Amino acid sequence: MQLLALSVTAAITFLGSNVDAFAASNTSSNKVTSVMPQAGITYALGSNQVSLSNLQQSVETSKTQSENSSTNSTSSDEVDLSNAVTDVTPLASTVTDNVLRDIQNATGAVIKDSAAASEGSSETAQDSEEEMFKSLVIAKVTNYVNVRELPSEEGEIVGKLYDKSVGTFIEEKDGWYKIQSGSVEGYVKAEFCVTGDDAVELAKEVGTRIATVTTTTLKVRNGAGLDAEVIGLVPIEDELVVTEELDGWVKVSIEEGDGYVSTDYVTLSTEFVKAESKAEEEARLAKEAAARAAANKAAKSSTSTSSSSSSGSSYNSASSYTTETSSIGSAVAQFACQFVGNPYVYGGTSLTNGADCSGFVMSVYSNFGVSLPHSSGADRSVGAAVDGLSNAQPGDIVCYSGHVAIYIGNGQIVHASTAKTGIKISNADYRSVLAVRRIF
Fold first, then answer.
1. How confident is the model at residue 237 (pLDDT cuts 50, 70, 90)?
2. Nearest to 150 by CA among 188, 119, 203, 198
3. Which domains does the chain have, with CATH numbers?
């Protein structure tokens, strides 16, 4: 089957309701959720997933401790070192295989097991698994492709299949694939999707493997063992990107660098985007518009009464940055930048005496009448989704693995980085970005 090259797809201009593939333009500076939803399918592998909305706690300042410290420490993986196995090579990485399995489970793909088709087959388990994923259909466009009720451009649009969204192949008809993805069933143009062998390769890139912390304070180590040095601490319900899965440990990314955490204290899941029906899109956009209107109203009514005690008498109030000509987002960015140089404190929320990354973002926004969670993971769901850093505006929230910051413009962020650096300004693309969210 001949598929059009992605470069050709992005170059074509599509107009009107009969357009079936849309390329996102990077010229717009305010592109939000008209582009794509932030949340897609999250297929959790455990039953103990912790609700992000329940996190409302602050934790006492904590420093890296020796493994010989008291066993009543609040930091997890405090297991008796006599039980640690440190001289055994961990199992090979399985992160790709687990992503593929999660795609299968979430999409309901039903594939014949060709490996068991004949006795004595030389096909390996990996070959069998890859054969199973050849029935997936994955969108390969710049933005999205329309899902239609009939295999024709005259068919009614019933939903959108976003770039790298995954569906299950049902049938092919006249150059159209009939698919099932999420609540959407319908036809997409074959030229804007991949299936078969191409889908097997692309499927390895569409999912993001996430480890959600399920204990009060989790230690991240520089090796997969209890005798390895602790490089950072992560609070409950934070979400870390997994880059490797070993025997009882996963390699994750945090602000201090890459490290390892025990799987005893995290829940593993895979996130990927699914199709969105017209009704789902309309409901999401209406909800986001209402939330932005409420945030703007709260900011306008609260900035004039911003408490100077929360930021210190030597700092300007939020109201001093709010003008008739500038956006509230710009005011947020300017207000936040005046705290550069102040300390980072794990679990802290003070803009002057010390805050961690999410505590810093939460406290900045509280001065503008907006209540945010004290969790970098939960911040990925606030406000409205922005289509990448190229469309970010001052005041937007930039989310990373286990970290969060405030965009200040010109490709930069302000954030409470680490205990060594404190609150500082960095390039926004210094790490891989998981999401950009807009409050105002």
1. very high
2. 188
3. 6-30+123-202 (2.30.30.40), 288-438 (3.90.1720.10)
